[in-house]
Every structure is written in structure tokens, then in C-alpha cells.
Amino acid sequence: MKLKNFTIIALGLLSSTFAFSQEEKVDPIDVHEQRISLLEDAATQAKKLKFSGYIQAQWQSSQLDSALNKSNDMKVGIVNNGPEKVAGTKNYNRYGVRRGRLKTTYEDFGCQAVIEFDISESGLKTKDVYLNVLDPWLNTFAVKGGVFDNPFGYEIGYSSSKLESPERSRLIQTLFPDEKTLGSMLTIQAPKTSPWTVLKLEAGLVAGNAISKDYKGKKDFVAHLTYNNSTATMKYGIGASMYSGTTLQTDTNVYVMKNNAFSRTIGTKPNGSADRQYFGVDGQFSIVSDLGLTQIRAEFITGTQPGSASSSASPNALDPTSSSFVASPTYIRKFQGGYINFVQDIANTKHSIVVKYDWYDPNTDVTGDKISYLTNGTTKLSKTDMAYSTLGLGYMYRMNNNVRIMAYYDMVSNEKVILKGFIAKKDLADNVVTLRLQYKF
């Protein structure tokens, strides 16, 4: 019995000694290398995930017209001035966050996933949600799907954080609300090592309803072909765009221009399609000299736009199945417009001056002298058919790579018309002053 107990105790001591010796044989160098490997893997993953964004806090002041209405070009504050209007105020100014963008990007194996939101006192809005996949063999073809910038022209894809004016041109805001679209796009561009990289083609099939649910089976086609090149001190580029799509005709009444008036088309069926056709050209040029960096950009767009009696804007939300949806006549208008933007840095300082001119004529088939209350009951012309132009003068100070200060004055001019309840025989009082502080990260 004693021998048995002694044997059990001996075996226990041997097993403990063996286990202890095994623990002692763990190589601390291996443990250290494992920890380093884990940290490197975490760092690699972190490099694939990027956060960026910017905040634009601004103050705006608008002239008031004879009815004490503010300019439609103000982008912050409530829609109308309510009690101030009743009190007969002569000043209209508001604070607001014009844009508060937060963007998340994840890149791996030639794939890029992007989610971007816009946050302000008005709430939270979706801006970008898309996946972009680059082919791994030629690095020439990329497919994008989701919500992204409309691939038309130059100004749409020009980041709002870089804009030298408070807003994009009136034409772009009208044709492409929110600048975004829902759909898919193919991009063809050779790698940077190829001489053909100067050419780029973007072509997509989109819903044509801005950042809203798709409502029609027939998709819109949009494309942008560009050529860009550069030297040591100069950059230049040109582009051509087209948009071919439709919007829903919700009413049997469809009007087209004929002899300076809208005329109802015959045989139109409800829930049909109205053609939406745009053609555009754009160009950019910049050069570095003793005067500083000089930049010139221009764009011209013309085409056919289906709208309503009260607006020539493209739909940014349309749900025919909604209980709040109301059918309305369609008005077909031929339009044209564009912009010219000049930016001059002051030598090697952090200061820049900006001059921008843009114009938009929503109805090129009629001039202002034909838009009159004497005939608008029969012609169905309205203030929607008025042409506008804007001359903007601005100043920018770049404090550093993150902070930029802008002061800008928009002088808005309109076509002279006289309509019932809307007297505009002279230029409306609708100029706007904008002061903006931007922080980019």
C-alpha cells in the first residue's frame, strides 16, 4: 500500500515537472514576433479604411423684392421669412450649416466601397453609397453601382469642398438636383503609365431620379468623354457629354412650344414618357506664373427638358404610387445655359479672387417681351420661362490645408416680364451675400 502511494506521488511530481519544463520552453521571441505580426495586420487593415469630410458654416443675407420675398439662391434658413415679412423688414439674413459631410472609404484588391452622408441642422441625408470595382488584369475598366455623381460635364463631379463659389451654377442645380444619381456606370481609362491615360470615358444607365427610389423600368443613358493633359506649369482638358432619358407624363395634357405659346399635343396618353435630352461641352485650363495659379473653367449645355407649369427642374423624387402624388400637365421646353469661372491666386500668397458668370434660359423659344399678363392666359407662359444670369465676385483665404474662408457676392439678373401677381419689368432685388468658414479633414 505504501509502495502504491509512493508511486502515485512520484508520477504526479514527474508530470508537474514535465508541464513546467514545457512552459519554460516557450520562446519569448516567437511571442514577440506574433504580436508584431498582429499589429502589422491591424495597421494594414486600417490603411484600407479612410475617413474624411468637411463642414461649411455660413451666414447669408438676401435682398428682398417688392413683395418682401428673399432670393431663391439662399440655401440656409427657412423657406420664407414669415413674421419678418409681416413686420415689413428690409433685411433677411440667416445662419446655417450648408454642408456637413462625413465620408467613409474602404479599398482592397482594386475594389472601393464608399458611404457618405450630409449632416446639418436640417437633418441627415445620403450623398454617396456605391461600390467601384477595377479589373485586375488591364487596370483599365471599372464598374460602379449605387448612388454616385452623375457622369455629365465637369462641375457636377467637382467637389463642393473645392468650389470657389458658394453653389454650382443655376443650370446644373436645375438639371441635376443633388448632383447625384442611382444606377450603374462603366469607366474606361488606361493606367497612368500608358500614353492613352489622357482619355477617359464614363457611361452609365441611371434611374434619373436623383437620390430617390427608382420608379420606372426604362433607364436613362448618360456619358462623358474627356481628354486631359499637362506640362510642368500647365494643365488643360476638354470634354463632351450627353444625356438621353425620359420622365413620366402623369397627365394627358402635354404642352410644346409653337408660335411663342404652349400648345397642347393631341393623342397623348397618361403614364407615357417625355423625352429628356441634354448635350454639353466643357473645358478647363490652368497655368502657374509669377502672378500665381490662374484657373479658367467653362461649360455649355443645351437640350430638351420636360417640366411643369411652375418648374423646369428635373425630378429629384417621384413616386406615382404615393397617396400624396398629384398628376400634373407636362411642359416641354428647349433650354440652354452654362458658366465661365475665373480664379486667380495672388502671387504666392494664400489669397485668391474669383469671378464667375453663369446663365440659364429655360425656354429658348420665347423672349421676355412675349411673357406678359395680357396673354399668359392663352400662351400658358409664366415666370418659369424667364431667363436668369448671375455674376459672382468672390474672395478666398486659405489659412492652411484644412481651413478656408470665403466671402462672395451674387448679382442675379432676370429677363424682364410682366405677369399677374409677379411684376418683373425691372431686375428683381434678389442679390445674395455669403460668408463661409470651411474646415476639411
Structure class: mainly beta
Query: What is the number of helical segments per DSSP (H or I, 4+ residues)?
Result: 5
Q: What is the strand content?
A: over 45%
For the residues shown, what is the average pLDDT?
Answer: 88
> Tally of extended strands?
20
- Report the helical percentage: 10-25%
Reported CATH architecture: Beta Barrel
Largest sheet: 16 strands, antiparallel, barrel
Write a structural description.
With 441 residues, the protein is mainly β. The chain has one domain: Porin (Beta Barrel). The chain is 13% helix and 48% strand. It has helices spanning 2-24, 28-48, 82-86, 170-175, 376-379, and strands at 49-62, 92-108, 111-120, 123-134, 141-149, 180-188, 199-206, 220-230, 234-249, 254-257, 262-264, 272-289, 292-307, 330-345, 351-361, 388-398, 403-414, 417-419, 422-424, 432-440. The strands form two sheets. It has a 16-stranded antiparallel β-barrel. A hairpin with a 2-residue loop joins strand 18 (417-419) and strand 19. The model has no long low-confidence stretch (mean pLDDT 88).
Offer a few descriptive terms.
441 residues, globular, mainly beta, two-stranded antiparallel sheet, 20 strands, 16-stranded antiparallel beta barrel, 5 helices, Porin
Q: Summarize this, please?
A:
The chain has 441 residues and is mainly β. The chain has 5 helices and 20 strands.
SSE diagram, text form:
Blueprint: H1 2-24, H2 28-48, E1 49-62, H3 82-86, E2 92-108, E3 111-120, E4 123-134, E5 141-149, H4 170-175, E6 180-188, E7 199-206, E8 220-230, E9 234-249, E10 254-257, E11 262-264, E12 272-289, E13 292-307, E14 330-345, E15 351-361, H5 376-379, E16 388-398, E17 403-414, E18 417-419, E19 422-424, E20 432-440
